[in-house]
From TrEMBL:
GO terms for cellular component: plasma membrane. This is Angiotensin-converting enzyme. Its EC number is 3.4.-.-. Its cofactor is Zn(2+). GO terms for biological process: proteolysis. SUPFAM superfamilies: Metalloproteases ('zincins'), catalytic domain. It is an enzyme of class 3 (hydrolase). Binds 1 zinc ion per subunit. The keyword Transcription does not apply. InterPro entries: Peptidase_M2 (IPR001548). The keyword Protein biosynthesis does not apply.
């Protein structure tokens, strides 16, 4: 029983911790594309958004200037690949699982 609980906590940690980052990637991209973030402050705004959504700061508290392109470390940014599908998938994963359990008659709201 303890192994199951530990595995479920690990899964929750992976999924929940991902959500702010999953949102952040495309929010930053959309703001760049629609001009809300000027080119001269892309990296600054990247870290402002990371602090706002993820509550993380640059390593060692250093200031990451515009000579860096930290958002580009995630492949999806320079590849112009949408990331929102991963965000939505993390949410739908559990909704689909619940629906399948209900359909199979294996869902007990008392254990949810």
């Amino acid at each position: 029983r303890e192994d199951n609980i530990n595995a479920l906590f690990q899964m929750a940690l992976e999924r929940v911790a991902f959500l702010p980052f999953g949102l952040l990637i495309d929010k930053w991209r959309w703001d760049v594309f629609n001009g809300n973030i000027p080119e001269g402050s892309w990296n600054t705004e990247w870290w402002n958004m990371r602090k706002k959504y993820q509550k993380v700061e640059p390593p060692n508290g250093e200031v990451r200037g515009e000579e860096f392109f930290d958002a580009g470390a995630k492949y999806h940014v320079p590849a112009d690949s949408k990331y929102m599908s991963y965000f939505v998938a993390h949410i739908l994963e559990f909704q689909l699982h619940r629906s399948m359990c209900i359909t199979a008659g294996q869902y007990n709201p008392e254990n949810a």
